[in-house]
Design goal:
It contains three helices and 22 strands. The chain has 280 residues and is mainly β. The strands form five sheets. It has an eight-stranded mixed beta sheet with strand order 16-17-18-19-1-22-21-20. A four-stranded antiparallel beta sheet has the order 2-3-4-5, with no helix packed on it. It has a four-stranded antiparallel beta sheet with strand order 6-7-8-9, with no helix packed on it. It binds 2-acetamido-2-deoxy-beta-D-glucopyranose (2 copies). Residues 1-24 form the signal peptide. Pfam families: Glu_cyclase_2 (PF05096).
Length: 280
């Protein structure tokens, strides 16, 4: 009798903890609050909101890579720095009054003056590649297209910590543009319409933001040349979230709305595609 009871209690505890794990990952959909003009020639790789309706953006593609200071409401480029033709701009973040930017297929990054975007320095980092950058005001967070999230010393660029980003037991590969928001690191996952909200402490995906409608709406309204969702910016003062994509004609202010359904396997595959070993 006692053993039957023990088995019963143990199973209850097991069921309870399993179902707890399942519902632990919240899923959000979004509502568009505002939309703004975005340069459809900007292959967005880094996006930052710096107050006073000012955005900074880093763009990629050889011969077209740049760093820009952009006015939010109009999309007007106020300051433009063209990178050398052989450089492919990637993620960027603002720490103090300096912009830090990484580059694709390279371990070299650049530092710019935030006012006139003149290049004031460069650095070498220890990630496998340069994809995304963000900051909590103390350290840099970096991604390199793998499932690794790095914390990097902004003075000597040494890796302080590396965590593997996982959703439940599954590694989330292709972490791309990053933003630090309220203790979490938000990451675009390359080639998906999903943003992973990650705990930088242990790499756990705390929740997903699922936003396929933005790209789909642009495609159905005739913008057939657009590339993937990429670029997250956070206005800490006014609690506004901005997103855009590579070659998108629009930048959106969005609000999150929790959805109650669990993430089924298809959605999970959509947000966290398996790693392709040999890709071009
Ligand atoms: C805010 O931006 C405007 C131009 O868009 C500029 O004239 C003004 O000086 C800026 N204010 C601050 C506090 O940076
Ligand atoms: C850019 O601004 C900094 C000060 O913020 C100044 O030292 C530097 O000379 C400026 N560079 C150019 C090219 O105007």
């Amino acid at each position: 009798m006692v053993s039957v009871l023990v088995v019963f209690v143990v199973s209850l505890v097991w069921i309870f903890s399993v179902s707890n794990d399942v519902v632990a990952t919240q899923i959000y959909t979004i509502d568009v609050v505002n939309e703004y003009h975005h340069d459809p020639g900007a292959f967005s790789q880094g996006l930052i909101y710096a107050g006073n309706d000012t955005l900074y953006e880093s763009t990629g593609l050889y011969k077209k890579s740049s760093v820009r200071k952009v006015h939010l409401q109009t999309g007007k480029i106020e300051v433009f720095h063209k990178m050398g033709d052989s450089w492919f701009g990637e993620g960027m973040t603002l720490l103090g009054d300096r912009l830090f930017q990484v580059t694709w297929l390279n371990k070299k990054g650049y530092i710019y003056d935030q006012n006139n975007l003149s290049q004031i320095g460069s650095f070498q980092h220890q990630m496998k590649d340069g994809w995304g950058l963000a900051t909590d005001g103390k350290v840099l967070f970096g991604s390199d297209g793998t499932s690794s999230l790095y914390a990097i010393n902004p003075v000597n660029f040494e890796v302080i910590k590396r965590v593997t980003v996982k959703y439940e037991d599954r590694e989330v590969h292709y972490l791309n543009e990053l933003e630090y928001i309220n203790g979490e690191v938000w990451a675009n996952v390359w080639v998906t319409d999903c943003i992973a909200r990650i705990s930088p402490k242990d790499g756990r995906v705390l929740s997903w933001v699922f936003l396929p409608q933005l790209r789909q709406h642009l495609l159905t309204s005739g913008h057939t040349k657009i590339d993937v969702l990429n670029g997250i910016a956070w206005d800490e003062e006014n609690k506004r979230i901005f997103v855009t994509g590579k070659l998108w004609p629009k930048l959106y202010e969005i609000k999150l709305r929790p959805i109650t359904e669990q993430l089924n396997k298809n959605t999970m595959d959509m947000c966290s595609p398996p790693k392709i070993i040999h890709r071009m």
